Amino acid sequence: GKHGKPGKGGLAFTPVAPNTQDALVVADGYESSVVVRWGDPVTEDAPAFDFDNQTAEAQARQFGYNCDYVTFFPLGPNRGLLWVNHEYTNEALMFRGYTDGGAAPVEQIKIALAAHGGSVVEIRKNGSSGRWELVTKGRRRYNRRITAQTRFTISGPAAGGDLLKTAADPSGRTVYGMLNNCSGGTTPWGTVLTCEENWNQYFVGANGVPEEQKPYLTRYGLSTTSAIPSGSRRFDRVEERFDLAKHPHEVNRFGWVVEIDPFDPTSTPVKRTALGRFAHEAATTTLAKDGRLVVYMGDDGRFEYLYKFVSTKRYIHGFDRHNRSLLDEGTLYVAKFTGDSPAAEIDGSGKLPSDGAFDGSGTWIPLVTGSKSHVPGMTAEEVLVHTRLAADKVGATKMDRPEDVERSPVTGAVYVVLTNNSNRAAANVDEANPRIGNKHGHIIEIVEAGDDAGRTTFAWSIPLVCGDPKDPGTYFAGFDKTQVSPISCPDNITFDAEGNLWISTDGNALAANDGLFAMPLRGSDRGHVRQFLTVPFGAETCGPLISPDQRSVFVAVQHPGEINGATPDNPSSRWPDGTQPRPSVVVSWHKQGKKIGS
Ligand code: FEO
Ligand code: CA
Ligand code: CA
Ligand code: CA
C-alpha cells in the first residue's frame, strides 16, 4: 500500500483507524493537548470553573460552550490570539436534572445566554514543540467574551430599515447578542467574520406574529403553529424580546455575518447586512483580480444555496478605515450549477455518468447591488433580510446543505462542502447533488472564469463523493479506493501550505467517531484521503486550523458526549478530564517538530 510513503502532497502519516473511543486519537508520531475548554477563565477577573456551582456572572468571563470556528492572529512567533465561536448550549449535559427551558431555574437560562457567542484568548507556544497553551497569568489585554447579550451595531443597506426596527430599538441599528455562530472567516485587514447559523431555534411566539410575516418565518425554519417549540431554551423568560408575539422584528436582527476586531476588546462588533440573511455557515474572503473583496458563503439547510458577495470598491492594503466599509456595499450573488451529462445518466446511486465526472458549468446570479434590487417584486432591504426567498425566485440550485467554502492558496480553486441531505429524492437529483438521500455528503471544486473570484461564471466538478470506499456510490477523485480512509459528513475545511485539503466531519454515518482527514488535490495522490485524528465519543470535529508555521493543527472538539439520554449523572463521555464532558479546542503536533501531515 501507499500508506507511510509521502505522495505528491508531502503527506506521509499512517491513517487513524475508525473507532468509537472516548478519546482524542491522533496519528502515530503525533501528540495532542487541550488548549482551552468550556469554563476556563478568559478575562483576568474570571473565577475557576465549578461544574456544580455555575453562575451567569462567571460564565460571561469564562470560555463558552460548544466551540466551533477557530482562527488565529499571530502576535509574534510564539504568541497569538485565538478566536473561537461558541455555537450553542446543551443544557441536558451542562446542568444536573435539566428537563426543559420552561422548568429551568432562570439562572440556568442566563448561563446559557452567557455561554453563547465567542471568545478571544491569548495563547503561547510551549517551548520548541508545536504545543500551544492558554496564557493564564499576567495581563491579558485582548481576552474578551462576546455573548448573547453583548451590544452590536447593524450596518449596510438593510440597517435602519423598517424590517429591523423594534420597540426597544426604533433606529434599527443596535442589537444585543449573536446566536448559533457556527463557522466563519477572517478579513485581509485582520478581523473575524463569524456567522449566525441556526438562530431560528431561539425564539418563541412565532404563532403570534402578524399573518403577513408568517411565510418569512416558515421559510427560515420557525414553526408558526406553536407558541413554544419543543426543546426551546426559553430565553424569553430572561428577555422578552425573544417572544416574537410581542416583538415580531427581533428575529430579523439575527442570521447575519458579524465582524469583530480581536485586537480591540472595546470595539463594538458589527452585523453586516450586505452579505444577506440566512443560516450562515462560514464566510471566506479572497480578492478578485481587480482588488475587490469577495466573500463565499454557504446556507446550511437542506436544499439551500451557495452565495458570494463582491464588494463595489477595491481593497487597499493598509487603509483599514476604507477596507472596513467594503463589507457594506457590493453585489450579493447566488450560485446556479448546470451539469454537462444527460439527466438520465444521473441515476441517484452516485455512479459516475459516461463522461466520467460529475461536472459542468455555473453562473453567479445577482440578487442585489447596494440598495438596488435585481429581484422583481422585492426591495433591496427585502432581498437582504429575506435572502432565501429572493434566491428562490431566480432559479438558483438547491444544494445538499452547503457548509464551509474555502479557496486553495495554491491553485485558487474554491471548494464547497455539502455535508449531507437525507431528503434528496430521485425526482430532484442533479449532477451537482447526484445522490438520493445523500447520507455521507460530497465536495464540489469550483474554478472561477479566468481564476478570478470576481467573475460571474465558473466550471465545477466533484472530486470527493464521501462514504465507505467499498460503496460503489463513492468517488475519491479516481484514487485507488482500497487505499483511502472512510469519510462521512464533511463540514469544515482548511488547507496546508502545500495545498492539501484538510476536512473535518460532523455526524459520521458510518458508526464511528468524527475526525479530521487530509486529501491531496494535485498529482497522483489526488483523492488519497487519510484520517489524521478522531474526536471523542459523541463529538463533532470543528475548526480545523493549521498554524502559519505548519507545525500545529488546532481542532475544536464540539459537543463531546452528546447522545440522546446522556446527563451529568449518566455521561456518555468523560473527556477531557475524566469528569463531565467539556467542549474544548485541542492542538496536535509532530513529536519531532515536523510539518503537520509528515
Ligand atoms: Fe453548525 Fe452547519 O454546522
Ligand atoms: Ca459530467
Ligand atoms: Ca459547521
Ligand atoms: Ca454541521
From TrEMBL:
PROSITE patterns: TAT. It comes from Microtetraspora glauca. Residues 561-598 are annotated as: Disordered. This is PhoX family phosphatase. InterPro entries: PhoX, TAT_signal.
